[in-house]
Amino acid sequence: MPFAFTLFLRFVARDVRRNWIRTLLTVFGIALGVSVYLAISIANNTAISQFKQTVSQVSGKANIELMPLSGPALPEAVLDALADYRMLGVKYTPMIDEHLVLAAQSPEQNSEIIQLIGIDMLADPDFKSYQSDANDSETEDSGKIRSEDTDSDQDSLKNLSVFSPRAVLVGGKLAQRHGFKKGDQLTIVVNDQKEKLLVAGVLGTSGIGGAYSGNVVVADIGLAQDILKWPGKVTRVDLIAPESLVPLLQAKLQEIVPSDVLVATPDTRSEQAEKMVRSFEYNLLALTFIALMVGMFLIYNTMTITILRRRPEIGILRAIGVSRRTVQNIFLWEAICLGLMGTTLGVVMGAFMADGALKAVAQTFQYFYFKVPLDKITVDPLQYAAAFAIGMGLTLIAALPPLLESTTVSPAEATRRASQESNVRRSTTPLFVVGLACLALCYFSALQPAVNNFPLFGYLAALLAIMGCSFLVPLILAKSLPVLATIFARIFGVEGRIAAVSLQGTLGRTAVACASLMIGIAMMISLAIMISSFRKTVTHWIDQSFEADLWLQSQARASGNKFGRLQESAIKAAASVEGVAAAEGFVDRSINYQGMSAFLAAADFDVLTKYGNQLFLSGESSKTVCARVVGMHAIISEPFAVRKNLKKGDSVEIDTPLGKRKFFIEDVFYDYASDLGYIIIPRDIYKQLYNDSSISNVAIYLKEGANIEKARQGILKNLGSSSLVSLSSTSELRKEAIRIFDRTFAITYALHTIAVTVAMLSIMNALFALTIESRREFAILRYIGAKKTQLAKIVYLQAAILGACGNLGGIGLGYILSLLLIHVINKQSFGWSVQYFVPYDFILQSSTLVILTSLLSGIYPARMAARTLAPSVVRDE
Amino acid sequence: MASSPSSQLLQIEAVAKTYGEHQVKALSAVSINIARGEFVSLMGASGCGKSTLLNLIAGLDTASSGRIIFDGADVTKLTDEAVTALRAKKIGFVFQFFNLLSTLTVAENVALPLELGGTTSAADRQKRVLEMLAEVGMENRLNFYPAQLSGGEMQRVAIARALVHKPELIVADEPTGNLDSENGLKVLELLKHLNKSLNQTIVMATHSEEAGAVGDRIIRMKDGLVVSDSLVQH
Ligand SMILES: Nc1ncnc2c1ncn2[C@@H]1O[C@H](COP(=O)(O)OP(=O)(O)OP(=O)(O)O)[C@@H](O)[C@H]1O
Ligand SMILES: [Mg+2]
Questions:
Q1: Which of A49, A477, A820, B67 gets the most CB atoms within 10 Å of its CB?
Q2: Ligand 1 within 6 A of B128 CB?
Q3: Does domain B37-49+80-231 fall into CATH 1.10.10.10?
Q4: What is the ipTM of this complex?
C-alpha cells in the first residue's frame, strides 16, 4: 500500500470515524442537497421527456409539420396546396390531437382529461408506424383493432370497426382503468353536452397506443372533427418528405400556406414546450441549489475546523518529512470520502424522493403548461451522473480553502505549545472590505436585465449576497464579542465571560460556524418571505379582480378542458334572468406568439367598463382603461409584457386567419393566473377576425340585493336542462384559485421544510465543532477547579451566542435574498409583480426554533465537556 | 552510513533569525560545528534561542541570514521539498510537547519514518519497529494509542520513532521538560546509551544542568548568542 494511502487511513480516516457524529451531520447535509437537486431535476426531466416521447409517438416518422398560429386548429383546406408535392415523394396526413373530457363512467368516479387523436385511417401506412409494428406486444396486435371474438360472437360486434359510426379505438391504459372492451360505450363531455362513443378496439402499448401513456382515444379524423365540433379543422398536418428536401420544402411551404400557419418540425413543438416550462424548472432548480450551497458550507466548516484542530499534528508530519503535497492529498481524500458518502447517499435518497417531487409538480405542469401523463418518472442515467458530479464538484470546491490552509502549516508548529489560529484572525478587515465589495457587486448585478428571459444576474446577485455577508462575519464578531463578554459577565458571571472570550479566541472557527449557520437560516427565511409575499399578493389580487357574482362555464371547461365552450346565446340567457344586472362574455384560445405559447382572449369591454375591476400597472381605474379598449385596442397581462418587453402605448401584432393584425396596448394588467401571458381584445373584433362567436365563460353581475341562489336557478332554467354547465359563485372560485396556488407552491413548501432541516443541521454541526475544539480549554478549566455544571453552562452559553448571531445574520441575509427572489429572479422569470410581505410571526417562530435547536445541540457537547478528564486531554495533544 | 567523508556533520556559520512584525531577534550570528558521534547539549535561559536554533538546524524554519551546512548540503539554500526529503532521511525529532499522532498506535507512530522512506519491506519494517521499541523498553505497548500512555512512555516512543530510520542526527528539544525527574533520567540514559552504542549524533536543548551534563559537550547561549562551548569531563 502506498505510504500516502496508509497515512490517510490512519491519520485522517480514523479521525473522521472518531468524530462520527460530525461526520454524519456533514454527510447528511451534502446528501440532502444532492437529493433534492436530483429529485427536482428528475421531475423536470420527466415532464419534458414525456412530452417529447408523446410527440414522437403521435407524429411517427413525420419530419415537417404545419401548425396553427392563431388558435388551436388550422383549416383543412391547406391540404389542397400540398397535392402538388406528392410527385416529389412527399406524403402528408392531417391530424387532430386535442384534449377530451371523459365523463365520470360511474357515480364514484371523477371525470378526467384524456387525449383525442384523430388520424386519417386510410392514409399511407408510413404515417402509421403505430399500426404496423405488431411484434412488440405479445398480447395485442398493437395499433390494429384488437378483435375480442372470444368474448362475444355476435355478428354486429364482429363488424364493428373504426369505420363504424362513432366508433373509436381506446388506449390500453384507459381501457384497463375503466374495463372498456370492444362494443362498450364510453361517455364524453364536449362543451356543454354529453356524448357517447363506441369502443371498436383496444390499442396496444407501442406506437400511438402508448402516446399519453395510453390515456388516448383514437378516431378517424372525420369523427374527431365531429366530436370536437371543429368541422374542416385539424390541429396539425404531418408531412414525411425525403430528408434532402426538408429545408427546401420548409421554405417553399411557408410561402404557400396562409400566414397564420407555421411550417415547423416536430422538434419545434418540443422546443417550445421546453421554453414554456424553462422558468418554472430553473426556479425550482435554483431553490435546490440553495440546499446544495448549505451542504457546501457544512463541508467547508467541517474540514476547516478539522484542519485547524490538527495543525500541531500536521506540523509533526511535516517535521518527520512528509511533504506538503502528501499532507494536502490525505485531506483531499477526506473531502473526496465525505463527498462520496454524501453524494452517494444523496443520489439514493434523491431517487426515492423523485416520485414525490414529480407528484408535487405534475399538476402544476399539467395545469399551466401541457397535459402529458406524469405518473411515472423517466429514468435517465445522465441525471444521476449529473447529480453525482455536482455533489462531488461542489464538495471539492468547498474543501479547497481548508486544503490550502493545510499546506500552510509549517513544520515548526509541531514545536509550539498552542495550536495556531487560522489566518482569518489577521484578515478580518480585508475580508470585511471584500464582503462589502461583493455586496456592492450584488446590488449592481441585481439591476441588470434578464439574459434571454433568464435571470442570470439575479442568480449571480444571490451568490454574491451570500459570499458578501459571509465575509462580513469575522470582523463583526471580532468587534461584538468583547462587548458581549462584558455584558455576559454581568448577567451570567464568570462563565458568561469565558463563553464569549473563548469564542473570540477561536475567531476563525467561530466565524466559519456562524457563517454556515447564517446561510442555512437565510435560506429558510428568504423562502418563507417569498412564499408568504406571493400568497398575500395573489389573495389580494383575487379579492380585487374577481368582481362578478357568478361565473358560468361549460362542463368540459370546468373539468379541465380549456377549449370547452358555450354558445354565445348563454350570455343573453344569463343576462335576461331577474336580478342579473349584466353578463359579460369571455373567450380565450391558445396562440403561438413569436414562437411562444400565449393566450389570446376577448372580452365584452362595455360590460367590463361598468362592472369589472381589473388592476392595471398604470394605476388607472379599471373604468377609464376599459372604456378606451375599443376597436383595434388591447390590454395585455404583466407576464406577457415582461417576457416580450412590451409596455403601455406599444402595440402587438398577432396572426389571425385574416392575416396579421396590430393592436394598440392600452394598458398592462396584473395577472397571476398564468405565466404564459394574455392579450385581451374586444370581443366584437375577435368575432370578425376568427369567425368564432362561442365563449369560454360568462361573468355575471347581480343587481344590488339580488338573491344569488334565485339568480342561479334562473340562469340554469334559462339555459335548459340539456346544457351541462358549471355555475360557481365568486367565493367558490376564489377558493379554487387559492387551492391551485397552494398546489403550485407545494414543492416550494417541501423545499422550505428541507431548508429548515439543513439550517438545524448546520447549527448542530457548528456547535459540535466548537466544543470539540474547546476540549483543551475545558481540561485546563477543570484543572483550575471549574465545576462540571460550570463547563456545561459555558457550552450552553456559547451555543446560545452562536445561535443568536447566526440567526441575526440569517435574517439579514434572508431579507436580501428574498428581495432578490421576488423583485429580480421571479420577476424576470415569470413577470409577476409581487408585493413584499414579511411574515413576522414565522420569523419569530423560527428564531425561537433556532435558539432551541442551538441549546439542544449543546446537550451532547456540554456532557462531553463535563466529562472531560483533565490529564488525558492535555497530555494527548 | 556516512555519505560525506568529512567528520563534520553540521557546520553553522553566522546564523541569525529575526521573528515577525515585532522584529524579535531570536538569534544573532551563531556559529557552531558539530562532528559525527557527538552528543551536544544546548543550554541557556528560557527565551535565549535554543528552540529557534534547533528548528533552523532541522530545516523546520528558515534562517534570516547565515549558512547551515548539514552533511555537505546547505540547508538554507534548499527548496522546501528538498529540506522535507532531508528531514525524512537524515533527521529524527523529539519534542517537548506534541510528539505522537493521536490517531496512530505506538507501533504505527514508530513505523511512520520507515514507511515514508518506502524502501523497506513490511516484514523488515515490523522487525525494525519491534527492535526499536524493545530498545526503549516499550515493546509491550505496540497497539496502544498515545492517549493511553504516560508522559515518559510517550517520550520513549518518540525517541524510538526518531531513531527507527537510522538518521544522521537526532534533534531533541527539552525531551525531559515535561517529565518528572525519574522518568526524565530514564530518557536521558536512553539517549546516552544510543550515543555510545550506535555512535548516534545528538543535539539536545535543555534547561537543566543535570540533563546537560549527560552530553559530551555543552554549548551555552544567552540572548541569541553562544557564550561558551566546552567539553564535559566525565
Ligand atoms: N514564532 C515566533 N514568533 C515570534 N517570536 C518568536 C517565535 N518563536 C520564538 N520567538 C521568540 O524568539 C526568542 C527565542 O525563542 P526560543 O523558543 O528559541 O527560546 P528557547 O530558548 O527555546 O526558550 P525555552 O527554553 O523557553 O524553550 C524568544 O524571545 C521568543 O519570544
Ligand atoms: Mg524552547
A1: A820
A2: no
A3: no
A4: 0.86
